[in-house]
């Protein structure tokens, strides 16, 4: 693909993820700027960043490192005695995030995890963790989100070697045309992978205008399984609840699950989203009705 081809930026960015994750894992000084163990924190973002915030919150709290809540910035309840607020944003220009940080400035310490080092958020937060090497040109976000989560995971003490290897293997695997051409997708996750499921569904909607849904795995049987049918896909991130695969396959739907790091499985979704978009004659670098950052009029 060339820079002028549809999806060229998304292709370059999604295929660079093993390298950007490795870079994030080595940013020890940046990781040290994140809230220390025991701190009670809120993590905020919009869209993709909100879903990454959900995954980080679940990982941090499950690891016993402190109460951690995730909010979309427009609906955040941060006046609850938090020790710090982490604001995640690729552009650093998202209106709701800027307004929230301005509102708590001087009262609650803020840490920004930001892709664009020239953005206005850099000077607003108390500490800025900058990831310019993961910033993107495509409107549809891939590597910044996963690189930020890789940074968070490394800061919690995780070794990302296996995740990086799994992502490289996913990128080298042949395309799955049956998966690309499915009628409908439902993504499922448990614990920290629930955020990944929500993000996977968003990626498919943004890039290819597809019918996608997402749920926590245990909630799927409380109604959503009603849409499972031949030609449709139920896609699990991480381990599935006992018996779920058999129940899905009994509907005629395809059940997708791979024994790899769930963040690498999101890279597989990125590939399918790009392939599906191009097969439909779309350009995920400039998707319908979307811009790189949501900047609202005053």
From TrEMBL:
The keyword Ion transport does not apply. Residues 30-178 form the SIS domain. The keyword Endoplasmic reticulum does not apply. InterPro entries: GlmS/AgaS_SIS (IPR035466), GlmS/FrlB_SIS (IPR035490), SIS_dom (IPR001347), SIS_dom_sf (IPR046348). GO terms for molecular function: carbohydrate derivative binding. Transmembrane segments: none annotated. SUPFAM superfamilies: SIS domain. It comes from the Bacteria. One of its GO terms (biological process) is carbohydrate derivative metabolic process. Keywords: Repeat. This is Fructoselysine-6-P-deglycase FrlB-like protein. It comes from Microbacterium saperdae.
